[in-house]
Amino acid sequence: MISYLFSNVTLDLVVQSDTVVFHGNQDSASSKLLFGKVILKVTKKTKISSLRVVASGVTQFWFAENSIAQYSVSTSGRDVYHSEIIQVLDKTEILLDGKKTPIYLEPNTYEYSFIIKNCGNLPESVYTTYGSTEYSLKATLETSSYLPSITKQIPIYIGRIPYSGPPTFMPDDGPNDILKKFEEKLSVKLNTPSKYYSENQTIDLVADISLMNPNIKILSVGARINEYTTITDIKNQNTKKFIVKMISSEKRNLDSSKQDSKFLDSSEFGFEMVLPQAYKNIQHDIETDVFSVSHQIHFDIDIEIDGVIEKLRTSLPLLVVPNEYFSEMLSLPKYSPKTEPADFELLPPVYSI
C-alpha cells in the first residue's frame, strides 16, 4: 500500500486462465503454456529499473508420528517430526530491464505480455491440513532505489487429467456401479451415472437393496463421500501420514414396522450428494511423490436380524477431476487409428508443446 502512495505507477497482473491442466500422467504429459500480461498505468514520467514476472511453486508437508525406540520397554514413545519444503517451480520472465540502459515511461497505459512454459511433470495443486502444493504468479516493478517495489501476486492452480490407457485414448466414462452380496442377508447394487465428477457437481446415487432373509429389518441407510489423503516423506518412503476427511453425508432412519413383503423383494433409495465448490474443501484425485488423494462413496446399512443389530457397508470408487475434463476432454473427437498413411504431418494443438 505504501508503495502506491509514493509511486506514479499502478500495476495489474492478468492471466488468460489461472488454471493449467495437463493431459496425461507426470511422465508423459506435454508442457502447457500460461499466457498473461502486466498492465502499467503511468501518471507521471517515471524511470523504470526492472519489470519481471516470477512463477513459483512449493510442495511442503509437516506431520508428527509417535516413535518407540527399538529396545525400549516403555509402551509410550516420543513424537518424531517430519517436514520438508521443496521448490517445484521457479521461473522468471524479464519484461523490462533498465539497469544497464535507462528506461523512461511517459504518462500512458502500457501492456507487457508474457508466456510461462510449464513442464508436464509438475505436481498438481493440493491443500491439506498437514501439507500442500501451491503455485503463484508474481509481478514486480522496481522504479527507484529509494522506493519500495510495486508487486501483485495471484494464485495459479495446476490440475491433471490422467490417462487410463495409452496416451492416444481418453479416459473411459460411463455408468459407475457395483454389486455387493452379504451372504444369506441381502444384496446391494450402487450406481452413479458417471465415474468422473468435479467441484460443485451433484452425484445422483441410487442404491438398490434386495433382501434374502424375510426376518431382516432395515433400520437405517446412509451414504457418505470420504476423501483419503496419504502424505509420504520423500526422505523415508516408509513414513506416511494418513488423513480421512468426510466430504458429504446423508442418513435416513426407516420405520421397520412398515416393511411389508413388497419391501422385501426390492427397495431402491436415491441420494443427491453435492460436492463442495471451494478449492480447499475438496481435492482432485492425484498421485505424486508426496501426495496421494482418492475418493469413495460408502453406503451403510443398519439391519436387525433375530434381535441382533448389524452394520453392513459397501463402497463405490469416485474420481474427482478438474472442471476442464468436461469442457476440454469431452469436446474432443474420439480417437480412431489411421488406416492409410497421411500426406502431411499433423501439428499438435497450440496449447501443447
TrEMBL record:
The transmembrane residues are none
Domain Arrestin C-terminal-like, chain residue ranges per copy: 184-322
Q: Which domain of life is it from?
A: Eukaryota
Question: What's an example Gene Ontology biological process for this entry?
Answer: ubiquitin-dependent endocytosis
Which SUPFAM superfamilies does the protein's record reference?
A: E set domains
Which InterPro entries does the UniProt entry name for this protein? Arrestin-like_C (IPR014752), Arrestin-like_N (IPR011021), Arrestin_C-like (IPR011022), Arrestin_domain-protein (IPR050357), Ig_E-set (IPR014756)
Give a GO molecular function annotation for the protein.
protein-macromolecule adaptor activity
An annotated GO cellular component: cytosol
Residues annotated as domain Arrestin-like N-terminal: 35-145
What this protein is called in its record is Uncharacterized protein
Q: Organism classification, top ranks?
A: Eukaryota, Fungi, Fungi incertae sedis, Zoopagomycota, Kickxellomycotina
